[in-house]
Amino acid sequence: MSATTTYAARDSLTMLRRNLLHIRRYPSVSVMLVAQPILFLLLFVYVFGGTMGAGLPGTGAGGGREDYLAFITPGILIMTVASIALGTAIAIAMDMTGGIIARLRTMDIARSSVLTGHVLGAVLRTSFALVVVIGFAVLLGYRSDAGPAGWLGALGLLLLLAVALTWLTVGMGLAADSVETASNTPMFLVVLPFVSSGFTPTDAMPWGLRHFAEHQPLTPVIDTLRALTTGTEVGGDGWLAVGWCLVIALVGYLWSRRLYTKVPAR
Questions:
Q1: How far apart, in whole angstroms, are the C-alpha atoms of residue 26 and residue 22?
Q2: Cα–Cα distance between 230 and 220 in angstroms, integer?
Q3: Does this model's pTM top 0.85?
Q4: Which of 31, 37, 96, 217 allows an S-S link to 80, with CB 3.0 to 4.6 Å?
Q5: What are the residue ranges spanned by the domains of the chain?
Q6: Burial class for 35, CB neighbours closer than 10 Å (0-12, 13-18, 19+)
Q7: Helices 111-139 and 3-25: crossing angle, nearest 10°?
Q8: Are 158 and 126 in contact (CB under 8 A)?
Q9: Alpha-carbon distance 229 to 146, whole Å?
Q10: Contact 102, 183 (CB under 8 A)
Q11: What does the buried/exposed string (b/e) look like for 65-99 if buried means 16 or more CB atoms within 10 Å of the residue's CB?
Protein backbone atom coordinates (compact mmCIF):
# COMPACT_ATOMS: atom_id res chain seq x y z
CA MET A 1 0.00 0.00 0.00
CA SER A 2 1.41 3.37 -1.05
CA ALA A 3 1.88 6.27 1.35
CA THR A 4 -0.81 8.26 -0.51
CA THR A 5 -3.35 5.48 -0.03
CA THR A 6 -2.42 5.15 3.63
CA TYR A 7 -2.87 8.88 4.25
CA ALA A 8 -6.19 8.88 2.38
CA ALA A 9 -7.48 5.95 4.47
CA ARG A 10 -6.33 7.63 7.69
CA ASP A 11 -7.95 10.94 6.77
CA SER A 12 -11.15 9.19 5.73
CA LEU A 13 -11.37 7.50 9.13
CA THR A 14 -10.84 10.90 10.78
CA MET A 15 -13.70 12.37 8.75
CA LEU A 16 -15.81 9.32 9.60
CA ARG A 17 -15.21 9.95 13.30
CA ARG A 18 -16.25 13.57 12.82
CA ASN A 19 -19.52 12.50 11.20
CA LEU A 20 -20.25 9.93 13.92
CA LEU A 21 -19.69 12.56 16.61
CA HIS A 22 -22.04 14.89 14.75
CA ILE A 23 -24.71 12.16 14.65
CA ARG A 24 -24.32 11.54 18.38
CA ARG A 25 -24.63 15.23 19.24
CA TYR A 26 -27.58 15.85 16.91
CA PRO A 27 -29.59 12.59 16.86
CA SER A 28 -32.94 14.15 15.93
CA VAL A 29 -32.32 14.03 12.17
CA SER A 30 -31.33 10.35 12.30
CA VAL A 31 -34.37 9.49 14.41
CA MET A 32 -36.66 11.28 11.95
CA LEU A 33 -35.12 9.51 8.94
CA VAL A 34 -35.49 6.07 10.57
CA ALA A 35 -39.01 6.83 11.81
CA GLN A 36 -40.27 7.64 8.32
CA PRO A 37 -40.07 4.10 6.84
CA ILE A 38 -41.42 2.66 10.10
CA LEU A 39 -44.47 4.92 9.86
CA PHE A 40 -45.02 3.84 6.26
CA LEU A 41 -44.68 0.21 7.34
CA LEU A 42 -47.36 0.65 10.02
CA LEU A 43 -49.61 2.59 7.66
CA PHE A 44 -49.51 0.10 4.81
CA VAL A 45 -49.80 -3.00 7.00
CA TYR A 46 -52.64 -1.88 9.24
CA VAL A 47 -54.57 0.45 6.90
CA PHE A 48 -54.14 -1.24 3.51
CA GLY A 49 -52.76 -4.66 4.45
CA GLY A 50 -56.03 -6.57 4.76
CA THR A 51 -57.31 -5.51 1.35
CA MET A 52 -53.99 -5.44 -0.51
CA GLY A 53 -52.92 -8.82 0.84
CA ALA A 54 -56.02 -10.48 -0.58
CA GLY A 55 -55.16 -9.17 -4.03
CA LEU A 56 -51.58 -10.46 -4.19
CA PRO A 57 -50.85 -13.13 -6.82
CA GLY A 58 -50.93 -16.62 -5.36
CA THR A 59 -52.71 -15.69 -2.13
CA GLY A 60 -56.31 -15.66 -3.27
CA ALA A 61 -59.05 -14.49 -0.95
CA GLY A 62 -57.18 -15.97 2.02
CA GLY A 63 -54.34 -13.48 1.82
CA GLY A 64 -54.10 -10.82 4.48
CA ARG A 65 -51.82 -8.53 6.44
CA GLU A 66 -49.03 -11.08 6.95
CA ASP A 67 -48.82 -11.78 3.22
CA TYR A 68 -48.77 -8.09 2.42
CA LEU A 69 -46.18 -7.44 5.13
CA ALA A 70 -43.87 -10.01 3.53
CA PHE A 71 -44.51 -8.44 0.11
CA ILE A 72 -43.77 -4.81 1.06
CA THR A 73 -40.85 -5.31 3.46
CA PRO A 74 -38.23 -5.14 0.65
CA GLY A 75 -39.76 -1.86 -0.54
CA ILE A 76 -39.70 -0.47 3.00
CA LEU A 77 -36.02 -1.43 3.31
CA ILE A 78 -35.28 0.45 0.09
CA MET A 79 -37.08 3.48 1.52
CA THR A 80 -34.88 3.20 4.61
CA VAL A 81 -31.73 3.31 2.49
CA ALA A 82 -33.06 6.28 0.52
CA SER A 83 -34.02 8.16 3.72
CA ILE A 84 -30.51 7.90 5.17
CA ALA A 85 -29.03 8.98 1.84
CA LEU A 86 -31.29 12.05 1.96
CA GLY A 87 -29.81 12.91 5.35
CA THR A 88 -26.34 12.82 3.81
CA ALA A 89 -27.33 15.47 1.25
CA ILE A 90 -28.47 17.68 4.13
CA ALA A 91 -25.22 17.14 6.05
CA ILE A 92 -23.11 17.97 2.98
CA ALA A 93 -25.12 21.15 2.33
CA MET A 94 -24.70 22.21 5.97
CA ASP A 95 -20.93 21.80 5.62
CA MET A 96 -20.94 23.80 2.41
CA THR A 97 -23.05 26.68 3.73
CA GLY A 98 -21.38 26.70 7.15
CA GLY A 99 -17.88 27.20 5.77
CA ILE A 100 -16.60 23.79 6.95
CA ILE A 101 -15.79 22.62 3.43
CA ALA A 102 -13.82 25.81 2.75
CA ARG A 103 -11.74 25.23 5.88
CA LEU A 104 -11.14 21.57 5.12
CA ARG A 105 -9.95 22.44 1.62
CA THR A 106 -7.12 24.49 3.12
CA MET A 107 -5.94 21.67 5.40
CA ASP A 108 -3.27 19.12 4.58
CA ILE A 109 -5.63 16.19 4.19
CA ALA A 110 -6.62 13.94 1.31
CA ARG A 111 -9.25 15.79 -0.71
CA SER A 112 -11.34 12.65 -1.16
CA SER A 113 -11.45 11.94 2.58
CA VAL A 114 -14.10 14.60 3.34
CA LEU A 115 -16.65 13.02 1.03
CA THR A 116 -15.58 9.46 1.83
CA GLY A 117 -16.10 10.13 5.53
CA HIS A 118 -19.69 11.18 4.83
CA VAL A 119 -20.30 8.07 2.72
CA LEU A 120 -18.84 5.70 5.34
CA GLY A 121 -20.90 7.38 8.05
CA ALA A 122 -24.05 7.01 5.95
CA VAL A 123 -23.38 3.30 5.37
CA LEU A 124 -23.01 2.74 9.13
CA ARG A 125 -26.22 4.68 9.82
CA THR A 126 -27.96 2.68 7.10
CA SER A 127 -26.88 -0.61 8.69
CA PHE A 128 -28.29 0.49 12.06
CA ALA A 129 -31.52 1.76 10.48
CA LEU A 130 -32.02 -1.50 8.56
CA VAL A 131 -31.68 -3.52 11.77
CA VAL A 132 -34.27 -1.30 13.47
CA VAL A 133 -36.76 -1.49 10.57
CA ILE A 134 -36.37 -5.26 10.18
CA GLY A 135 -36.88 -5.60 13.94
CA PHE A 136 -40.17 -3.66 13.68
CA ALA A 137 -41.27 -5.82 10.75
CA VAL A 138 -40.58 -8.98 12.78
CA LEU A 139 -42.61 -7.56 15.68
CA LEU A 140 -45.49 -7.02 13.25
CA GLY A 141 -45.32 -10.66 12.16
CA TYR A 142 -42.80 -10.69 9.33
CA ARG A 143 -41.22 -14.09 8.78
CA SER A 144 -38.68 -15.20 6.19
CA ASP A 145 -37.96 -18.57 4.62
CA ALA A 146 -34.47 -17.48 3.55
CA GLY A 147 -31.34 -19.03 4.99
CA PRO A 148 -28.14 -17.27 6.10
CA ALA A 149 -26.84 -17.06 2.52
CA GLY A 150 -30.02 -15.36 1.37
CA TRP A 151 -29.92 -12.78 4.14
CA LEU A 152 -26.22 -12.12 3.58
CA GLY A 153 -26.94 -11.54 -0.08
CA ALA A 154 -29.82 -9.21 0.78
CA LEU A 155 -27.66 -7.25 3.23
CA GLY A 156 -24.85 -6.98 0.69
CA LEU A 157 -27.24 -5.65 -1.94
CA LEU A 158 -28.75 -3.13 0.48
CA LEU A 159 -25.31 -1.83 1.46
CA LEU A 160 -24.26 -1.62 -2.19
CA LEU A 161 -27.41 0.41 -2.86
CA ALA A 162 -26.62 2.56 0.18
CA VAL A 163 -23.18 3.39 -1.24
CA ALA A 164 -24.70 4.18 -4.65
CA LEU A 165 -27.50 6.43 -3.40
CA THR A 166 -25.22 8.13 -0.89
CA TRP A 167 -22.69 9.14 -3.55
CA LEU A 168 -25.60 10.44 -5.63
CA THR A 169 -26.96 12.52 -2.75
CA VAL A 170 -23.47 13.78 -1.90
CA GLY A 171 -23.49 15.34 -5.36
CA MET A 172 -26.96 16.77 -4.73
CA GLY A 173 -25.79 18.28 -1.45
CA LEU A 174 -22.77 19.86 -3.13
CA ALA A 175 -24.90 21.21 -5.98
CA ALA A 176 -27.63 22.64 -3.72
CA ASP A 177 -27.57 26.37 -3.02
CA SER A 178 -29.07 25.92 0.46
CA VAL A 179 -29.83 23.30 3.09
CA GLU A 180 -33.54 23.53 2.21
CA THR A 181 -32.80 22.71 -1.42
CA ALA A 182 -30.62 19.78 -0.37
CA SER A 183 -33.44 18.41 1.77
CA ASN A 184 -35.95 18.58 -1.09
CA THR A 185 -33.93 17.53 -4.15
CA PRO A 186 -33.37 13.86 -3.13
CA MET A 187 -37.04 13.34 -2.14
CA PHE A 188 -37.69 11.54 -5.43
CA LEU A 189 -35.53 8.68 -4.11
CA VAL A 190 -38.06 8.13 -1.32
CA VAL A 191 -40.97 8.36 -3.78
CA LEU A 192 -39.53 5.96 -6.40
CA PRO A 193 -40.30 2.78 -4.37
CA PHE A 194 -44.00 3.65 -4.63
CA VAL A 195 -43.75 3.61 -8.44
CA SER A 196 -42.14 0.17 -8.54
CA SER A 197 -42.93 -3.39 -7.54
CA GLY A 198 -42.42 -2.44 -3.89
CA PHE A 199 -46.03 -1.97 -2.80
CA THR A 200 -48.15 -3.48 -5.56
CA PRO A 201 -47.49 -5.86 -8.46
CA THR A 202 -46.66 -3.91 -11.60
CA ASP A 203 -49.21 -5.97 -13.57
CA ALA A 204 -51.99 -4.05 -11.79
CA MET A 205 -50.75 -0.66 -13.06
CA PRO A 206 -51.88 1.20 -16.21
CA TRP A 207 -49.64 0.58 -19.22
CA GLY A 208 -47.55 3.77 -19.06
CA LEU A 209 -47.01 3.57 -15.33
CA ARG A 210 -46.30 -0.16 -15.54
CA HIS A 211 -43.67 0.42 -18.24
CA PHE A 212 -41.91 2.99 -16.07
CA ALA A 213 -42.17 0.85 -12.92
CA GLU A 214 -40.75 -2.22 -14.62
CA HIS A 215 -37.73 -0.37 -16.05
CA GLN A 216 -36.74 2.02 -13.27
CA PRO A 217 -33.61 1.10 -11.24
CA LEU A 218 -35.27 0.22 -7.93
CA THR A 219 -37.64 -2.44 -9.27
CA PRO A 220 -34.95 -5.10 -9.97
CA VAL A 221 -33.38 -4.28 -6.59
CA ILE A 222 -36.71 -4.81 -4.82
CA ASP A 223 -37.47 -7.99 -6.79
CA THR A 224 -34.01 -9.36 -5.97
CA LEU A 225 -34.44 -8.56 -2.27
CA ARG A 226 -37.84 -10.22 -2.29
CA ALA A 227 -36.39 -13.37 -3.86
CA LEU A 228 -33.41 -13.45 -1.46
CA THR A 229 -35.57 -12.98 1.65
CA THR A 230 -38.16 -15.56 0.60
CA GLY A 231 -35.67 -18.18 -0.54
CA THR A 232 -36.87 -18.20 -4.16
CA GLU A 233 -34.92 -18.03 -7.43
CA VAL A 234 -33.31 -14.66 -8.08
CA GLY A 235 -32.90 -15.01 -11.82
CA GLY A 236 -31.63 -12.20 -14.02
CA ASP A 237 -32.92 -9.50 -11.67
CA GLY A 238 -29.89 -10.01 -9.43
CA TRP A 239 -27.36 -8.99 -12.10
CA LEU A 240 -29.58 -6.12 -13.20
CA ALA A 241 -29.86 -4.87 -9.60
CA VAL A 242 -26.10 -5.00 -9.05
CA GLY A 243 -25.50 -3.32 -12.41
CA TRP A 244 -27.83 -0.43 -11.59
CA CYS A 245 -26.16 0.06 -8.20
CA LEU A 246 -22.69 0.16 -9.76
CA VAL A 247 -23.75 2.63 -12.46
CA ILE A 248 -25.42 4.96 -9.91
CA ALA A 249 -22.40 4.72 -7.60
CA LEU A 250 -19.96 5.56 -10.41
CA VAL A 251 -22.03 8.49 -11.70
CA GLY A 252 -22.54 9.83 -8.17
CA TYR A 253 -18.86 9.50 -7.29
CA LEU A 254 -17.59 11.22 -10.44
CA TRP A 255 -20.18 14.00 -10.12
CA SER A 256 -19.41 14.54 -6.43
CA ARG A 257 -15.65 14.65 -6.99
CA ARG A 258 -16.05 17.18 -9.79
CA LEU A 259 -18.35 19.41 -7.73
CA TYR A 260 -16.13 19.22 -4.66
CA THR A 261 -13.18 20.41 -6.70
CA LYS A 262 -14.91 23.19 -8.63
CA VAL A 263 -17.94 24.43 -6.69
CA PRO A 264 -17.03 27.16 -4.15
CA ALA A 265 -18.24 26.82 -0.55
CA ARG A 266 -21.18 29.11 0.21
A1: 6
A2: 15
A3: yes
A4: 37
A5: 3-262
A6: middle
A7: 50
A8: yes
A9: 5
A10: no
A11: bbbbbbbbbbbbbbbbbbbbbbbbbbbbbbbbbee
